[in-house]
Amino acid sequence: MESVEHEDTKANAPSVIDRYYTRWYRADMKGKPCEDHCILQHSNRICVITLAETHPILQNGRTIKCINYQISNGCSRLKNKVSGKSKRGGQFLTDFAPLCRITCTDETEYTIYSCIRGRLLEVNENILETPNLLLEKPSTEGYIAVILPKFEESKSITENLLNRDEFENIISKRSSAQSQPS
Amino acid sequence: MLPLKEKDKPIIQKLLSAGCCARCILRFCCVSVQAAYRKPPEETLEELQIFINDTKNDKCQDSVALDSTDEYKSKDAAESETSEDPPNKRAKLETSITDAQSEEGAAAVVKLKDGDSRVCVVCLGILQELCGTTQAVKITEAVKAGNYEFDTLVLSVSLPAQLCVREHSCWLHVKKEVREKGLVLNKDDVIQVKEAFKWIMQGMVAKELGGTAVVTKVSPFEVSVEFTHSETDADCHFLAATCPDCFKPTKNKQSVFTRMAVVKALEKIPDGKFLKHYPCPPKQPTSSCSPQEVQCLRVSVFVAGRYNKFCRSLPQTPWVIDGERRMESSVEELIAAPILSAFRADGFNFSSSGREDVDVRTLGNGRPFAMELLNPHKSRFSKEQMKQLQETINQSSDKIKVRDLQIVTREAMSRMKEGEEEKTKSYTALVWTQKPIQREDISFIDDIKDLTLDQKTPLRVLHRRALAVRQRAIHSMSTRFLDSHHFYLRLKTQAGTYIKEFVHGDFGRTNPNLCQLLKTNTDILELDVESVDVDWPPPVPE
Ligand SMILES: [Zn+2]
């Protein structure tokens, strides 16, 4: 349940994400400050990779210049194809496999990583046409990719991730640290 | 008297010395007169002995007599003679064979002396002691214990695969002689062990059951007897080396040496190669086959109907995650339990025209379903009894309700799945909007007709379904305003449309979705199926 002030606009029922997904995080991805990722894990073990609200791309009114799923000369996430119920043929990703690179109009460039081990099911092609989706709805329509962890790893893949409380702790420490010098 | 001819004599001679039982000899002589197999085997053996013996003594006369059909019928004289004076006959036979001085003849003498106690090298006892009243009583007891409802029954026999190897070896042993008997005769003309077994047992079982028809071909009630013979299981093993492609290991089979595979390998193997690896005739076994438990199986009965689901915490089928039960019951179990006990069935397969989520109700006329009842011990139900059964189901729970419960055919069941995609379904959804709305903000939805959606496989089912984009149609929609953040949305859609995803958008993976149409985040709080427009099963008049 949200705070009292929000009761007018929010339904009493939790949102789709609250109902069916667990939020997991990686903070300061690969040591880069504030490059936080969010992993939404569905109760059926499927994971949706999104930018955390705190990611630099979503700060300071940045706009996106381009999103590139071609992560190397030989590998494009757009070429990923899965077939059948068993999702044959999908690229297998490890924790730090890059999913895409996002360049902002201020020429800052960020790499988004898979965060977990699993089979890549799809990437979000809608954000290529409408990059604003990423800025406006980073945790739903602006998702980056969908990954299916191995059945036997569906519990262990989140061991290295932060849960929501741990992540919020880090964020609050981060903001108090930033506010101290000024 | 047995329907045998002059040219059968060398076959009989060879098989007797090889250690074949009397009935197996009849089989290899291609005797297809069922009555011949029903005689006590000791009598048959004696007749065979007399037959070959007489030939030795008086070839011309006997062959003429035996070739005449009339002669078989007026057999009284011959039989009475046999029974009156067997020691004499036997003595005579032994003398005559000794006279013949052939090695085969000498072996036959040995065989004749203790013939009855020896296990047949081909049928491993199946057509000997395993084919008699004791076995018939055992079968009958199993049928009676199951308390089945049936008009006819069919016997089925499962034999150890090595019997085929032994049969083949024996065939090679007398192939020349059988071919000489008749130009067109071949291995297929040899009567199969199974067939002879049934000819003998059918009548016996029918008698034990007090006159129930035991039929040869088709009956909904099948009683199976299985025999194994571990002593000779290794008989087949050489085939794996000679014909490896016939014996590919399969997951669910205990042994690669299935009857089918062995038969296939025997068809392929050249005679010379077979004879190099396997004795011809087969070796004498020390024991008979072991009869396994008698299995009774009544063919499935199919029951169909329509169900309502009034509960938002009831899955359609048992819900198990990580081996743990999530909800205490399910639609399937609530319907199946009374039906299973009424039909006294061993199990069931449940299917339905689509399915609803655990939190979705199914109202209106309900959703068509059908159940296959496995091995039902009771299968005859009047319309009145079916109505009673429906009533029992409906009394047992207020979470579900069943109507139009009836017995259907297997073929009719396919009508439920037929054209499922083309059928329409109606739903009511309770929708929440993030932005406050007024009546007129949503009224435009009522005018939308035949809206085509591109639906990517919803994330909530993507773990078990293939990823695809499917086009689905919403034929019409109507709205009922509730308050500034809620309204009811009625939809009539093509079957297979995911309603929840249409409302919340599924991360933009359903296009268009209600969020886009209303330009605000929307979510679905409740969903009811109002109708499943499949015109099967037919309504049962009250
Ligand atoms: Zn036999």
Quick overview of this protein structure:
The complex is a heterodimer of chains A (182) and B (542). With 182 residues, chain A is of the alpha+beta class.
SSE order and pairing:
The complex is a heterodimer of chains A (182) and B (542).
Chain A: H1 16-20, E1 21-26, E2 37-42, E3 47-51, E4 64-68, E5 92-93, E6 98-104, E7 109-113, E8 118-123, H2 126-129, H3 132-136, E9 145-148, H4 164-179
Antiparallel strand pairs in A: 1-2, 2-3, 3-9, 4-6, 5-8, 6-7, 8-9
Chain B: H1 9-18, H2 22-28, H3 34-38, H4 41-57, H5 59-67, H6 69-73, H7 76-84, H8 86-100, H9 103-113, H10 133-146, E1 152-158, H11 162-181, H12 193-208, E2 213-215, E3 221-228, H13 237-242, H14 259-268, H15 271-277, E4 290-291, E5 295-298, E6 301-309, E7 320-321, E8 324-325, H16 331-343, E9 347-352, E10 360-374, H17 383-396, E11 400-408, H18 410-417, E12 424-433, H19 439-442, E13 449-456, E14 469-483, E15 486-494, H20 499-504, E16 510-511, H21 514-518, E17 522-532
Parallel strand pairs in B: 1-2, 1-3, 10-17
Antiparallel strand pairs in B: 3-4, 3-5, 6-10, 6-11, 7-8, 9-10, 12-15, 12-17, 13-14, 13-16, 14-15
Helix pairs in contact in B: 1-2, 1-4, 1-9, 1-11, 4-5, 4-8, 8-9, 10-12, 11-14, 16-17
Zinc ion (ZN) is lined by residues 20-21, 23-24, 120, 122-123, 127 of chain B.
Protein name (chain A): Protein Abitram
Pfam families (chain A): GCV_H
Keywords (chain A): Cell projection, Nucleus
